[in-house]
């Protein structure tokens, strides 16, 4: 009787629930990296070794699962941007931001799609954070240009373009960290004012906002993504 009581104690139940939750999050990151953010939620449950009902209890929608699976990475990006703005040398801040975000791309291949997708279930919050990030990026770029380190024709959209290019390379060469680091080094060198030997074509219309609203193709979230886990295959 005492043994049964120990096995069903509240502490044991909570510990089991925490383990299940962590298994689901780890499985979600792996499945999303392999199959994109629109992968069937049943596949996540199978990978985690839990029932779909268990997944439901922890994450009632796909959006909730995606947000939580990559919460640490998003927080790291936000912190890196704040640290970049606080840096005494704006160029050092910009370099730190680029290197940090690209390192996240390498570590979690599902994260780029999660970051670029607009998370329909939290659209107002996501849009607000996106607008703030765009303002902060523009401020960082302006400071770096004014310091004389960043080439004078650099545009904030160039940074977005560089990150998208890096995402594509990581998708094509997921296990080649050396290629990732070399591309980041090339990009950062090309940003420097002392490397601006020839004028660039006009900047593109890329922005974080535009990216967020169009990143719902393969691997991104679709408008139907707020369905409850388990309602798809």
Automatic annotation (TrEMBL):
HTH tetR-type domain segment(s): 18-77
Residues in the DNA-binding region annotation: 40-59
PANTHER family, sorted: HTH-TYPE TRANSCRIPTIONAL REGULATOR BETI, HTH-TYPE TRANSCRIPTIONAL REGULATOR RUTR
Keywords: DNA-binding, Transcription, Transcription regulation
Keyword Cell membrane: no
Superkingdom of origin: Bacteria
Protein name per Swiss-Prot or TrEMBL: TetR/AcrR family transcriptional regulator
